[in-house]
Amino acid sequence: MNRRIIGLLLLAGLIVLGCIAPGCIDTPQTTSGQSAPPAGQETPDPAAEGAGNVSAGNNRFAADLYRHLASDPESAGKNIFFSPYSISTALAITYEGARGTTADEIASVLHLPVNESLRRTGFAGLDAVLNHGDRNYTLRSANALWAQETYPFLPEYVDTAARWYGANVTNLDLAGDSEASRQTINRWVEEKTEDRIRDLLPPGSIDSMTRLVITNAIYFNGTWVKQFDPAETTEEEFRVAPGETVRVPMMHRTDEDAIYGYAETGTLQVLEMPYAHGNGTELSMLVLLPREDNLTVAEEALDAETLADLRDSMTDRRVRVVFPKFTLETEYSLLRALAAMGMPTAFSYDADFSGMDGTDMLFVSEVVHKAFVDVSEEGTEAAAATGVVMNLKAAPGEDTTPVFRADHPFVFLIVEEDSGTILFAGRVANPEGS
User: Fold this and answer.
1) Which of 81, 195, 287, 412 is 20 to 30 Å from the Cα of 313, by its Cα?
2) Which of these, 223, 219, 225, 251, lies nearest to 378 by C-alpha position?
3) Cα four-point dihedral sign 283, 289, 295, 297
4) Is 138 helix (H, G, I), strand (E, B) or coil?
5) Class assignment of domain 230-321?
6) Beta strands 410-416 and 421-428: pairing type?
7) With 60 as the cut, is the pLDDT of residue 397 above it?
8) Can you state the angle between helices 116-130 and 84-95, rounded to 10 degrees?
């Protein structure tokens, strides 16, 4: 069970992978390097039914989000890399405070177990597995809540986040000193990811209306069981499209000890490259390689049933492996993607997060995600972080008069009003220019 749970946590290119009163600050705790979760957090059997349900839901979400990102015209020809586990964990903590349609949509998109006990013990169990510790690799995940120090969140929500997700609270002046708060949260993310994820929250993502930020950070660093010899790495062509190649460093492992899990179909080759481990969970990279240039064949195999069938069909055999060294860094604002996938209400003024504060005044203003991966002869380093920013809706009677400040380039039209005909069109890039 452990191998299946963890082996599919980081799809999309790499598959590896309580106090809110004013003035009262608790530093978020993490299970990094510990053999048990933090004090107060439940310790269920990681192989329990809840963990299996949460893992299955996470993998379905991974495939859904991958396909959505891959189909986005802005992603055409670009690399994709993200941590579905990081995103689903941060949004699961957000879900704990959602109610009504808002909760239903989040649960549907994330494929969360409907049963409360299975959901909570599942996330707690997986968190315990990830933070179990191993002498041969580093793998850890951490959650935190960052709350406006004067805002009255419900004790039940705070307790749930801490007990089941290990997400303790730090009180900040999010509204009054947004920039200092942003930097504090970003420093926490950098610390948890060995500085691989920097500036998770971009400038302007926290403002005077922000009341809560929910974060997850995940980090992995492991070596291959069968490492590649750097002396065998050579510059070779990598085909990026039919008739188009680039020169990249390609690693080689073709000796008699190159024994790997392997499977193939008429259109696909599947390779499993394990990471060295001691007493912890087995981790591996699963690579889906189309026989031709049709990447769709590999992408269509990302559904849970197909992946399970492929893994079940794998046998250990000698394989001549030629694999590129690469480093990827990605960042996403996920509002549009998640809304299109079926949870738009959370991002609107119709959002209901009354489970957080007893009111309907909060909504999700941003979901940001950053990820990093480096694959070399020795092994793999990967990190990712997710931030969910909760803002206050404009209060009744508040001045919502828009400000139109044309202090940057703009387009203008001269229109004949009756017919709507555009007579002139232009762009002002520099008012002093010609």
Assistant:
1) 81
2) 223
3) negative
4) strand
5) mainly beta
6) antiparallel
7) no
8) 140
Record the tokens describing residue 226, joined without a space.
């069968």
Percent of the chain with pLDDT over 70: 80
Q: How far is CA 284 from the centre of its chain?
A: 19
Write out the two tokens for 219: 């980090």
**Residue in 140, 194, 220, 225 with CA at minimum distance from that of residue 382:** 220
What residue has token string 């404009």? 394
The CATH 3.30.497.10 portion of the chain extends over 2-223+326-392
The per-residue pLDDT for range 89-120, each reduced to its tens digit, is 999 999 999 999 999 999 999 999 989 999 99
Q: Strand 259-264: give its sheet, edge to edge.
A: 284-290, 268-274, 259-264, 315-318
Looking up tokens 């957080």 gives 356
Which pLDDT score is estimated for 391?
Answer: 97
11 residue type, one letter: L
- Residue 419, SS3 per DSSP: coil
> Which residues of the chain does CATH 2.30.39.10 include?
230-321
- State which amino acid sits at residue 186: N
Helix, strand, coil fractions of the chain, as percent rounded to 5? 30, 30, 40
User: Is the model's pTM score more than 0.70?
Assistant: yes
**Domain 2-223+326-392: CATH architecture, name and number where available:** 2-Layer Sandwich (3.30)
pLDDT at 50: 72
Q: Which amino acid is at 302?
A: L
Tokens coding 250:
């390609």
Residues 91 and 388: beta-carbon distance below 8 Å: yes
Task: Tell me the CA distances in angstroms from 392 to 206, 359, 360, 389, one per residue in order.
Answer: 11, 10, 9, 10
For residue 42, CA distances in Å to 122, 154, 163, 336, 394 come to 10, 20, 6, 34, 37
Q: Tokens 């996330």: give the residue.
A: 123
